[in-house]
Design goal:
By secondary structure, the chain is α/β, with parallel strands linked by helices. It contains five helices and five strands, in the order βαβαβαβαβα. About 35% of the residues are buried.
Amino acid sequence: MSMDVIVAGPDEDDITAALEEEGATVARLNGVISRPALEEAGIVDADLYVLTDIGQATTIPIVCDLSEDVRTVVYARDTVPEFVKGQLDLAVDPQLMDAAIVADELTG
Protein backbone atom coordinates (compact mmCIF):
# COMPACT_ATOMS: atom_id res chain seq x y z
CA MET A 1 0.00 0.00 0.00
CA SER A 2 1.35 3.37 -0.98
CA MET A 3 1.46 6.15 1.57
CA ASP A 4 1.16 9.84 0.66
CA VAL A 5 3.43 12.02 2.78
CA ILE A 6 4.16 15.72 2.95
CA VAL A 7 7.52 16.73 4.39
CA ALA A 8 7.62 20.40 5.34
CA GLY A 9 10.83 22.27 6.05
CA PRO A 10 14.48 21.60 5.34
CA ASP A 11 15.50 17.96 5.13
CA GLU A 12 18.98 17.96 6.63
CA ASP A 13 18.44 14.51 8.17
CA ASP A 14 17.16 12.84 4.97
CA ILE A 15 13.69 11.82 6.15
CA THR A 16 12.33 12.31 2.60
CA ALA A 17 14.75 9.78 1.09
CA ALA A 18 14.10 7.34 3.92
CA LEU A 19 10.33 7.56 3.43
CA GLU A 20 10.66 7.13 -0.34
CA GLU A 21 12.88 4.10 0.23
CA GLU A 22 9.99 2.60 2.24
CA GLY A 23 7.66 3.15 -0.74
CA ALA A 24 6.02 6.42 0.28
CA THR A 25 5.13 9.12 -2.23
CA VAL A 26 6.55 12.34 -0.80
CA ALA A 27 5.67 15.95 -1.60
CA ARG A 28 8.06 18.60 -0.27
CA LEU A 29 7.24 22.08 1.05
CA ASN A 30 9.85 24.72 1.89
CA GLY A 31 9.82 28.34 2.95
CA VAL A 32 6.82 29.89 4.67
CA ILE A 33 4.07 27.27 4.57
CA SER A 34 0.52 28.51 4.15
CA ARG A 35 -2.86 26.80 4.12
CA PRO A 36 -3.12 27.15 0.31
CA ALA A 37 0.37 25.62 -0.09
CA LEU A 38 -0.66 22.68 2.11
CA GLU A 39 -3.85 22.20 0.10
CA GLU A 40 -1.96 22.39 -3.20
CA ALA A 41 0.56 19.81 -1.93
CA GLY A 42 -2.32 17.42 -1.22
CA ILE A 43 -2.69 17.54 2.56
CA VAL A 44 -6.39 16.67 2.40
CA ASP A 45 -5.54 13.23 0.97
CA ALA A 46 -2.18 12.76 2.73
CA ASP A 47 -1.61 9.97 5.21
CA LEU A 48 1.28 11.66 7.01
CA TYR A 49 2.58 15.19 7.62
CA VAL A 50 6.22 15.42 8.71
CA LEU A 51 7.43 18.80 9.93
CA THR A 52 11.18 19.36 10.16
CA ASP A 53 11.13 23.08 11.03
CA ILE A 54 9.75 24.00 14.46
CA GLY A 55 9.47 27.59 13.22
CA GLN A 56 6.55 26.33 11.11
CA ALA A 57 4.76 24.67 14.07
CA THR A 58 1.61 26.68 13.39
CA THR A 59 1.08 24.45 10.36
CA ILE A 60 0.20 21.50 12.63
CA PRO A 61 -3.21 22.93 13.72
CA ILE A 62 -3.90 23.89 10.09
CA VAL A 63 -3.13 20.35 8.94
CA CYS A 64 -5.36 18.89 11.65
CA ASP A 65 -8.14 21.25 10.61
CA LEU A 66 -7.86 20.23 6.96
CA SER A 67 -7.76 16.48 7.55
CA GLU A 68 -8.90 14.40 10.51
CA ASP A 69 -7.11 11.29 9.23
CA VAL A 70 -3.59 12.63 8.70
CA ARG A 71 -0.92 11.63 11.21
CA THR A 72 1.34 14.49 12.30
CA VAL A 73 5.01 14.03 13.08
CA VAL A 74 7.77 16.43 14.02
CA TYR A 75 11.23 15.23 13.05
CA ALA A 76 13.43 18.03 14.36
CA ARG A 77 16.15 18.78 16.87
CA ASP A 78 14.33 21.69 18.49
CA THR A 79 11.74 21.45 21.24
CA VAL A 80 8.13 21.26 20.13
CA PRO A 81 6.04 24.26 21.31
CA GLU A 82 3.43 23.46 23.96
CA PHE A 83 0.50 24.66 21.85
CA VAL A 84 1.20 21.93 19.28
CA LYS A 85 1.92 18.93 21.50
CA GLY A 86 -1.73 17.92 21.87
CA GLN A 87 -2.14 17.68 18.10
CA LEU A 88 0.99 15.65 17.39
CA ASP A 89 1.06 11.92 16.92
CA LEU A 90 4.85 11.73 17.31
CA ALA A 91 7.88 13.94 17.91
CA VAL A 92 11.35 12.55 17.23
CA ASP A 93 14.79 14.12 17.56
CA PRO A 94 16.98 13.08 14.59
CA GLN A 95 19.95 12.90 16.95
CA LEU A 96 18.19 10.10 18.84
CA MET A 97 16.68 8.11 15.97
CA ASP A 98 17.95 7.66 12.42
CA ALA A 99 15.64 8.65 9.53
CA ALA A 100 15.58 5.07 8.19
CA ILE A 101 14.23 3.73 11.51
CA VAL A 102 11.63 6.49 11.75
CA ALA A 103 10.51 5.94 8.13
CA ASP A 104 10.22 2.20 8.71
CA GLU A 105 8.05 2.74 11.79
CA LEU A 106 5.86 5.36 10.09
CA THR A 107 5.22 3.31 6.96
CA GLY A 108 5.08 -0.15 8.53
